What we know:
The structure is a homohexamer of 295-residue chains. With 295 residues, chain A is α/β, with parallel strands linked by helices. Chain A has helices at residues 4-19, 40-54, 68-100, 106-119, 121-138, 145-151, 153-169, 175-187; strands at 190-191, 196-197, 202-204, 210-211, 216-217, 222-224, 228-230, 251-252, 257-258, 263-265, 269-270, 275-276, 281-282, 291-292. The first copy, chain A, starts with a helix and ends with a strand. At the B-C interface, helix 3, helix 4, helix 5 and helix 6 of B face helix 1, helix 3 and helix 8 of C.
Amino acid sequence: MNAPESYTQILSKAVEALSDTSEMKGLFHQHRHGDPLPSGPVLEEIIGLCRAVLFPGYYGKSALNSVTVKYHIGMELERLFSLLTSQIEAGLCFSREAEIGHCGDCHEYASSLSALLISRLADVRRILATDVEAAYLGDPAAQSYGEVISCYPAIRALTCYRVAHELNRLGVPLIPRIITEMAHSETGIDIHPAAEIGHHFTIDHGTGIVIGATCIIGNNVKLYQGVTLGAKSFPLDANGNPIKNNPRHPIICDNVIIYSNATILGRVTIGRDAVIGANVWLTRDVGPGERVTKD
Amino acid sequence: MNAPESYTQILSKAVEALSDTSEMKGLFHQHRHGDPLPSGPVLEEIIGLCRAVLFPGYYGKSALNSVTVKYHIGMELERLFSLLTSQIEAGLCFSREAEIGHCGDCHEYASSLSALLISRLADVRRILATDVEAAYLGDPAAQSYGEVISCYPAIRALTCYRVAHELNRLGVPLIPRIITEMAHSETGIDIHPAAEIGHHFTIDHGTGIVIGATCIIGNNVKLYQGVTLGAKSFPLDANGNPIKNNPRHPIICDNVIIYSNATILGRVTIGRDAVIGANVWLTRDVGPGERVTKD
Amino acid sequence: MNAPESYTQILSKAVEALSDTSEMKGLFHQHRHGDPLPSGPVLEEIIGLCRAVLFPGYYGKSALNSVTVKYHIGMELERLFSLLTSQIEAGLCFSREAEIGHCGDCHEYASSLSALLISRLADVRRILATDVEAAYLGDPAAQSYGEVISCYPAIRALTCYRVAHELNRLGVPLIPRIITEMAHSETGIDIHPAAEIGHHFTIDHGTGIVIGATCIIGNNVKLYQGVTLGAKSFPLDANGNPIKNNPRHPIICDNVIIYSNATILGRVTIGRDAVIGANVWLTRDVGPGERVTKD
Amino acid sequence: MNAPESYTQILSKAVEALSDTSEMKGLFHQHRHGDPLPSGPVLEEIIGLCRAVLFPGYYGKSALNSVTVKYHIGMELERLFSLLTSQIEAGLCFSREAEIGHCGDCHEYASSLSALLISRLADVRRILATDVEAAYLGDPAAQSYGEVISCYPAIRALTCYRVAHELNRLGVPLIPRIITEMAHSETGIDIHPAAEIGHHFTIDHGTGIVIGATCIIGNNVKLYQGVTLGAKSFPLDANGNPIKNNPRHPIICDNVIIYSNATILGRVTIGRDAVIGANVWLTRDVGPGERVTKD
Amino acid sequence: MNAPESYTQILSKAVEALSDTSEMKGLFHQHRHGDPLPSGPVLEEIIGLCRAVLFPGYYGKSALNSVTVKYHIGMELERLFSLLTSQIEAGLCFSREAEIGHCGDCHEYASSLSALLISRLADVRRILATDVEAAYLGDPAAQSYGEVISCYPAIRALTCYRVAHELNRLGVPLIPRIITEMAHSETGIDIHPAAEIGHHFTIDHGTGIVIGATCIIGNNVKLYQGVTLGAKSFPLDANGNPIKNNPRHPIICDNVIIYSNATILGRVTIGRDAVIGANVWLTRDVGPGERVTKD
Amino acid sequence: MNAPESYTQILSKAVEALSDTSEMKGLFHQHRHGDPLPSGPVLEEIIGLCRAVLFPGYYGKSALNSVTVKYHIGMELERLFSLLTSQIEAGLCFSREAEIGHCGDCHEYASSLSALLISRLADVRRILATDVEAAYLGDPAAQSYGEVISCYPAIRALTCYRVAHELNRLGVPLIPRIITEMAHSETGIDIHPAAEIGHHFTIDHGTGIVIGATCIIGNNVKLYQGVTLGAKSFPLDANGNPIKNNPRHPIICDNVIIYSNATILGRVTIGRDAVIGANVWLTRDVGPGERVTKD
């Protein structure tokens, strides 16, 4: 290397250019010292702890029995409470700083939301049990409940969604969305945490599924891979920006089946017991029991 | 925090609620003490070891030559034998406990299956070499065999599938499916381990591909992203549950090409040299050499 | 275990079979001793460092302010320079050994390419800022720039693409493609590093998107999930192999919107302000402002 | 590098030379496949778990209270049982293979010894509590029980010794000695696990202390750094080898104080309430209440 | 295993016995929820950061130059500030809870102490530089300053002592003592953080050295291995407990040399330029320039 | 925190003060970019690899047999060669930069020294085998060769010393000393790598032993804990600095036994078969067969 200084010079010029805070508006996130930051690895651990608590004996290193299950769940909930508090606090700070420039004392409030989430996990387990049952009954290739819990991407995505949905109902900003995007990355299933989904929900294969923020899905609904439940278009405000939060995604009633790669767009209603065929493209209401196929 | 006890109370109430084994039927997996458990991280390492053994010099930290390759492969196979034995045993216990409430001594049987798998790896490498060749020849963007092996998702997914398929043929429960679901998560390509696939098989891009459990695919077949080879419907038994294991997915003969997002459903046969166009939706047999396109 | 030797015998036979270098042509990668190897974990760290430098304060463990940002970016660039040099060198060796059987001294050349990449990162940040802005304005569900940067798969994929594209422009072999395939695995969005993409580019949801190597995409373009910008067919050379590197993917002009699962194949041009509907299949030019929908 | 092959040749010659099992008698430890091996990192974790269980709240990452302490101790004992079983089994196999060439089924026996050790931990805690009290009362520099537990090397060494001593009483080979040598390495205090030591035992500073295998130490004894309680000489058998296991180290009665660097050798008795001065060298009995100083 | 339940029963009985908080007085440390705990691994990292900042270029993974040194030290001090704040807070809580049952808000106070320590590091480096110089000049085997900094146990122990001494002067409880005990474990050199030690202090070899809490050591003093500067006896209070904090260890004046295994006990003064021989045992004052040897 | 800026100000002032290179003469180690640095963790791994190769089956995770031992040793030597080359190169650069301001190309030279060390390991194993034998025969508490290899600090220290001594003979600077200081820290046994030591060397307990750089020790010598073989004084040069490298430590002839805490200083000779008693202080020659005891 005949001019090692030159690399040092390039490096220090790049440091100056990339540290210029005046240019970084919106991209530079300036946290208050001491506030927790949203953290991918911590959220991974949170999801892992939820899975361990919700499906005892499937995750983790050792055998459980009816005595030791209590020690495991005790430890897992204790750690979950602590990690979740930090991430909820991170979400609150993140959001308030964006809005009002400071956060106040979010820690106590985050602790109480974290405790509320934990007190709802038994209900989350009850509804996930119906999803497991539906996946097992609906797939001829499924050999056991254990196989469904261990390796079906639908169950992984729905575990994330159902936990994130509870956090969203508690008003936690940012964190629910990061959780469902983690499931999206892992499974190719993209469910917005604000969507409402009933019991016995099944997804087959799953890659490419999109379920938008204002979707409402009933009970016993089944989706195949590649289904989009999206928005058709959205009204703009006076500045030409989309109006946030208005209902713009489909309502899917009980017992509907939607086959692979079907696309349903806009605030339409698919009635009870309807069947939508593969590759169908739909922007209208469908009546109860109706079957819609390509041509 | 003015009432720290309350968090402790919430925590212990949640522990009680979530440890109630009477409510957990089917969700609580109670392993016999000492039996190994299926483990994501162990299976990740198993796949990594298979890749290192099958494609020497592409994975791992150091340079190989014709002397040192033997040390590497020796160590990798030794560790693979040990880890695979534990995971096969985990699969056997898991399945037998579900069926007959106990496992017996699966360890010796798992060791012999693990050794059988290892003795078949040279054949697995031979057929994967044809897949690499097909991917290289079929993609104008491919610069070298090395690029194909290093970064094509098809090769990652097929390596998992071809190993999992051998395990499935040996009658190992659960584990083959977990392995192909790991590849599904990594690549968006979902191949059931029970499917039969010939040599020189190519997948381009791959995201969203589904190949069902009873598919039979010949030699020199090429699929593009988003192709579904699925079931159309399945007969129910007297209780209204789907009948397991009957042939319900397509047969794809030699030299067929299927373009992106095509959907083929049911036990239909696509004849030799046929070409199926993008976005086509098919539930019928296609003759040899036939070209099917949208409209 | 009554015959432990037998496992040892199976193991040593498999080691012999799998170490037979005569059989491994093309699959056995023989690196010169001391040359660096392409490494997944190192490339993961490289991407992480790029994200940390490009979006200060969103990644990493601690709070930044206008004083400390310089220490962070200094350390990150120093490490990035070192890791990137090793990976560029690995790519150069890999490619030259394939071509001419040896590499020469790639280290110095790799260092200079690595320094060039670092000196372009400020420009990469400027164009990524336009992508963030476009994603925020285009999605009614987006709450803040921070949410977009933290969890939108489009931003993760575009960060990888824009860095890989710079490396590709510098003539670095192999490494750019591995980087975009890492993003493909993480997000389901498959962008070839050789594609050209303008500013304010948006992708919604993203799973299943394919953008081919010779695509040219203008400014303010928006794609939805499942869109393919692919090749229709490609001319073969005298040996029946595809001719590498000829233009075979679409040109998308400014302000075009392409809805979910649309497939556009071949060297066609989609004119300014055109709108392509969901599930559309297109192999022809589209005029400026034209709206193409199914049926 | 002008002759890279030569390194490969040196390497393979060294591999041959170092793999020559005929030369390795006594140095090459050939374990039966599947038997556990003694493992430094596992034993480190075992000691860590013992510390966590014996001194709740001082080790580990999170706060304990009277509810959560049960979850922690439950998890820790479960893991301790599993790890300790494997290490006891390793010790048994190691010893029996040395003696009779095979081990038989040690696993069940190891489990029962592991359970016995766990059932004695409450007693171990009771006697360690007296050691903590003695250290606190005996050191004017000690600020609190907490300081003594957190950082006094005597407590670290005695925790290892008292656990190893229980294992030694249960007849576990090898493992107790490895544990006390780990404490020796950490603290410079070398206590043989076969030594007998009463309650309220104190060691000040500790570096260089040696307590031999057949020592018997009463209650309320205090030692300073550098004290040796060793053997003077030992009878040889017909082959000139030392006779193993005969009493050859001192007996120290209740309330004795021995100051720094004193050396006491052979099966002598130091009577109740005696005081031995710094740097004294002793090979004779000392009467009750006697004070021995240098000249 | 013919009675697996019995292990579960033994386990749960042991959990009950070991969780009985009534028995744990003094041994059970009950921290307030959310307060940080003293942590060995965090303190290890703190010491590592101090070494990296005090001796730039000797620790850590990459090369430094006069530009990049600032980035390194910036990052290291930022992390040091954060970790040290948490450990100082842990020490404060630990101590106050022992005294008054609660801690109040220690975080802000801990931050200010942490910042004070950081502002004193440049002075700590200046005095350590004199210790390095003294070690180099005093040892014929030393080849370079670099060798002294890289591997002399004296420098490792003095770095810990000099940092711990500053923390002790700031009134931080517990943490300084844990730091010097970490050095004691690593080097066999036991220096109490409250001792006062001048510049150009040298220790040769070091194992077994003890320097008590109320020692005062001048400049240019040299100690060899095994030297004890201890207390002879200490007055008891009315309850028979030792009175804490009274002066009870030697005063060593400038330029004194003390050879190996010498023992000096009590509040005696060793005058300027005195030399104390190996294995000497001393409990009296020594005049300036006096030479004391064994007989 | 009412003034967070102040911490930032303190931090940046400390960064400036501590980055001032003019003040750092001798303390700031400025490595050439790209040169390897001496690394504690890498040297730990090197020692671990040496132990694994020299005592097959005692270290590492899996069982060995006469077939697999070759794979293990092959892999271990390959990695040892690579790591050792980097550390030898680091030592060469370190030393040459100190002397002549630059290093030249040390890599090739380091590779050849690393290969030489590896080719001597079989001899190192042969002499270590005599040390194991001597320790076993000399200690009535030793139960087996395996126990001696697994946990005797003497064997750990001698393994480091004998490897470091070979490196020292090859002229490698700095690294041998770091290795023996690692053993010193672990065992309290401080052997300078330049000392000469014969076969069947035993150390009992070991804490506090010092063996100086110019010591010469014959065969069948045994030392107990706390023995110093040191320098008495050393001649100064014209500047008052000690003259480096002159013989200044004892010569110990064959079959000598030296009991605990004995101190032997200066270039004296202890004749064959002599016995030196505990706590003896010696600065004179001792004749063959002589017994020296206190008083």
